[in-house]
Design goal:
about 210 residues; alpha/beta; five-stranded mixed β-sheet; 7 helices; globular; four-stranded mixed β-sheet
Amino acid sequence: FDNPVRPGDQRRQYDPARIPAAPGDPNQREVRTQTDFGPRLAFRDDGDALRMEGEIAPGDASRLRDYLAGRDNPGEVLLNSPGGSVSDALDIGRQLRDAGVATRMGASDICLSACPYIFASGTERIAPDAAKLGVHQHYFGESTVLPAFMAVEDVQRGQGLVMAYLDEMGVDPLVMQHALTTPPDEIYVLIPEELDAYELRTSSGPR
């Protein structure tokens, strides 16, 4: 995962518990392991920004709603997450879009799996070229206990919801072609040209 990506060489093995630390700008935080992140999103005020780090766990959307209740909306949300619950990511994203906030990543931050759906919600979406945003296939529901035809139907319905959400956020749903062709134990890391072409980011930050 810590090897540089280049066009045509963008898939990496994906195990959130084994994402290695990555060297970066000494003024930036390093990419850490899933164990360091913790099992669910942590919310922390950082000046007028809200820092959100960790795995996206079921129920985190409700936790965010409670956290923001009675507070002024943050100016922006700083993201660093290996992903997690898709449905919670979509709910969190809609909350942030309703609040009209920007999303931002640092040069050594990661936003993988379901995290890019939160990132997509920003009214501005800032990610430097060195930040790692990646997508892959998702599970929707507990497919292991469903008949095969129901599991496929559930996944297709979920992917349709994600594509509609991305369109709603102003992101080209064609970015999902990379997610749909990348198995859950791998991650497709988007290169800067793709972040711009799919309008997943609106800026790479200060020039």
